[in-house]
């Protein structure tokens, strides 16, 4: 619901149109242009002055930009990412009209650090599977994720993973279904290597999301992941069940 900045009980007509336009922006990509003002005014059954005031609201919020003689340009906006036990990154963004992709950057066996060992319930220094994936939305780098698995029997199959949904791959190739059981979120500046992955300036703000995933009925976590997300591109929604 769009919240008015004015001390009135109900939004004005142009604020109602701004709220509807803001919702419809989810169906546009960065770089798209909105239809002509005359078309939008006819669509919403308002005069052009009201329509312009509604667009002005979106300009102030940073969702669109007026280009003289060209039109109203749609700018990059954060993608909504609900956090719950069944969250699926790709499916969620597809439903928002976006095009998510995922590619593998790294796949190795390595000794578990103290943090990874504690998360997975193994001894420090014991070998674990480490995969790193990069996720893009509409071609823009959004997050880089380090995935750690203690079950070494999965290594031959996980070496074959190259792109797409890693959890779908586990389900299809190994019959393994994982469920999010814990999420911790913190914020910090991006380091040089991280800024290259995410294609942002060094020290840009990023959100660090640490997650535990379990198989049904197992006390020991099957996966520990650390996701580094562009803070300007992801908006997390906590969903309570």
UniProtKB/TrEMBL annotation:
The keyword Isomerase does not apply. InterPro entries: Bact_HTH_transcr_reg (IPR050679), Chorismate_lyase_/UTRA_dom_sf (IPR028978), CP_lyase_PhnF (IPR012702), Tscrpt_reg_HTH_GntR (IPR000524), UTRA (IPR011663), WH-like_DNA-bd_sf (IPR036388), WH_DNA-bd_sf (IPR036390). Residues 11-77 form the HTH gntR-type domain. Pfam families: GntR, UTRA. PROSITE patterns: HTH_GNTR. It comes from the Bacteria. This is Phosphonate metabolism transcriptional regulator PhnF. Keywords: DNA-binding, Transcription, Transcription regulation. GO terms for molecular function: DNA binding; DNA-binding transcription factor activity. SUPFAM superfamilies: Chorismate lyase-like (SSF64288), Winged helix' DNA-binding domain (SSF46785).
């Amino acid at each position: 619901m769009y919240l008015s900045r004015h001390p009135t009980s109900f939004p004005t007509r142009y604020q109602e149109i701004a709220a509807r336009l803001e919702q419809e922006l989810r169906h546009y990509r960065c770089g798209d242009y909105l239809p002509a003002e005359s078309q939008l005014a006819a669509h919403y059954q308002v005069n052009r002055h009201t329509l312009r005031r509604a667009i002005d609201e979106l300009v102030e919020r940073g969702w669109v930009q007026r280009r003289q003689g060209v039109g109203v340009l749609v700018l990059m906006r954060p993608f909504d990412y609900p956090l719950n036990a069944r969250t699926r990154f790709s499916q969620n963004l597809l439903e928002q009209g976006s095009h998510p992709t995922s590619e593998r950057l790294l796949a190795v066996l390595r000794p578990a650090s103290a943090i990874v060992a504690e998360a997975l319930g193994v001894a420090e220094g014991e070998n674990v599977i480490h995969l790193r994936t990069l996720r893009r939305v509409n071609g823009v780098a959004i997050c880089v994720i380090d995935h750690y698995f203690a079950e070494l029997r999965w290594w031959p199959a996980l070496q074959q993973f190259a792109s797409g949904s890693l959890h779908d791959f586990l389900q299809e190739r190994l019959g393994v279904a994982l469920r999010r059981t814990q999420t911790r979120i913190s914020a910090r500046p991006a380091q040089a290597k991280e800024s290259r992955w995410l294609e942002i300036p060094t020290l840009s703000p990023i959100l660090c999301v640490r997650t535990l995933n379990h198989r049904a009925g197992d006390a020991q976590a099957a996966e520990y992941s650390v996701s580094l997300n562009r803070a300007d591109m992801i908006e997390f929604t906590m969903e309570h069940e």
